[in-house]
């Protein structure tokens, strides 16, 4: 065994995870590559070309690099556990009128669990992925910090990782930018890999049409939710809609025409199939409640801490005061924040460090004047 240790690397076939594996191999780790098949493309019912991390091309790309570099590569099928947990939650959240974040759920409950299980079976001390994030340590606690590349930073989707996961994880790309990673691939003779496009879609919704996915997944959904009503904040009827699960907080497009000013979805009421529309200022809130908390940097979210709170991926975050209320936290923003959506993740930062995170359970504690 290598003096550096044996590491299990999650390889999707994309440039990031592939370069991560090559970097660790070059550093002297004994690398074992693993590709997780999380979903069955045919079962999604979408049209178009199969792309993304679970396509046959991507799996073959990961295996080809492993063969070229001279390390073992395995494919594992976790479609059943992924589907039962991530996809079912995705559907249930939309049916409940919330906006899910399946990538966070998958990282927290599926991928790391599957990786650690296989790492133990293969005598691997560590696991590694191609995420752009950094692992640091304070008082014997591991925590995530933002990666060097602000445009690629993925710390937001990793807030749910436990100390057990972090103690065995490695993010080789955290201190590099995306252009630097592309150059590495090119320097190592992988010209095609260096130019490989990125995929931003949810892996089980490859055409990025979540409404179509819901319709195919839930029998009779269109008929059950047809004939819903748009209203304004005063209760005035603004017309009919296709059904509340097909709308998200902050949505502007796809609301129909005939409005004198731009309208946005500001509230979803699943019990009455009502979607509330308003102006952009109606999306502004100064607070929210967050549950399912995972405290990362400290053993508990510091009471009354002033932290930067990020409410969606690629959100710049906003200063806030965070207070503990039982197992949940209450967040008071120092200035209004737009488009807080229950079901999305809220991640708390101290500078670049992830203090912790959770799932938004309620927004709009009060709107500032």
What does this entry look like structurally?
By secondary structure, the chain is an alpha/beta fold. It folds into 3 domains: 6-130 and 172-194, HUPs (Rossmann fold), CATH 3.40.50.620; 226-278, SH3 type barrels (Roll); 284-363, Elongation Factor Tu (Ef-tu), domain 3 (Beta Barrel). It is 27% helix and 30% strand. It has 10 helices and 17 strands. It has helices at 15-27, 41-44, 56-69, 79-95, 102-121, 163-167, 178-187, 191-194, 210-217, 221-225, and strands at residues 6-10, 30-37, 72-77, 126-128, 133-138, 141-146, 169-170, 228-231, 237-241, 264-269, 274-278, 284-295, 305-310, 318-325, 328-338, 345-350, 353-363. It has a 6-stranded antiparallel barrel with strand order 12-15-14-13-16-17. It starts with 5 loop residues before the first strand and ends in a 6-residue tail after the last strand. Residues 46-51 have low confidence and may be disordered.
């Amino acid at each position: 065994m290598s003096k550096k240790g044996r590491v299990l690397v999650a390889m999707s076939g994309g440039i990031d995870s592939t370069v991560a594996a090559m970097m660790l191999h070059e550093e002297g780790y004994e690398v074992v590559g693993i590709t997780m098949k999380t979903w069955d493309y045919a079962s999604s019912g979408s049209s178009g070309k199969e792309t993304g991390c679970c396509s046959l091309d991507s799996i073959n790309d990961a295996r080809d690099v492993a063969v070229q570099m001279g390390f073992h590569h395995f494919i594992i099928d976790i479609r059943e556990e992924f589907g039962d947990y991530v996809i079912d939650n995705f559907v249930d959240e939309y049916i409940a009128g919330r906006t899910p974040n399946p990538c966070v759920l998958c990282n927290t409950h599926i991928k790391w669990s599957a990786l650690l299980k296989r790492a133990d079976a293969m005598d691997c001390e560590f696991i590694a992925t191609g995420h752009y994030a950094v692992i640091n340590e304070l008082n014997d606690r591991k925590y995530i910090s933002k990666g060097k590349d602000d445009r690629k930073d993925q710390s937001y989707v990793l807030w749910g990782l436990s100390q057990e996961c972090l103690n065995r994880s490695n993010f080789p790309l955290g201190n590099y930018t995306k252009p630097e990673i592309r150059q590495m691939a090119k320097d190592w003779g992988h010209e095609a890999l260096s130019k490989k496009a990125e995929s931003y879609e949810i892996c089980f919704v490859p055409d990025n049409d979540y409404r179509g996915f819901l319709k195919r997944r839930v029998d009779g959904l269109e008929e059950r939710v047809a004939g819903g009503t748009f209203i304004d904040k005063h209760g005035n009827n603004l017309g009919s809609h296709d059904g509340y699960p097909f709308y998200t907080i902050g949505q502007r497009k796809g609301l129909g025409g005939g409005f004198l000013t731009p309208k946005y979805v500001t509230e979803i009421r699943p019990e009455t199939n009502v979607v509330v529309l308003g102006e952009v200022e109606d999306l502004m809130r100064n607070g929210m409640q967050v549950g399912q908390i995972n405290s990362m940097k400290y053993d508990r979210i510091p009471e009354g801490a002033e932290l930067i709170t990020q409410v969606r991926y690629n959100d710049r975050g906003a200063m806030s005061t965070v207070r503990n209320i039982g197992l949940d936290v209450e967040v008071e923003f120092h200035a209004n924040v737009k488009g807080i959506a229950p079901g999305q993740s809220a991640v708390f930062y101290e500078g670049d460090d992830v203090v912790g995170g959770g799932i938004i359970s309620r927004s709009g504690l009060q709107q500032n004047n």
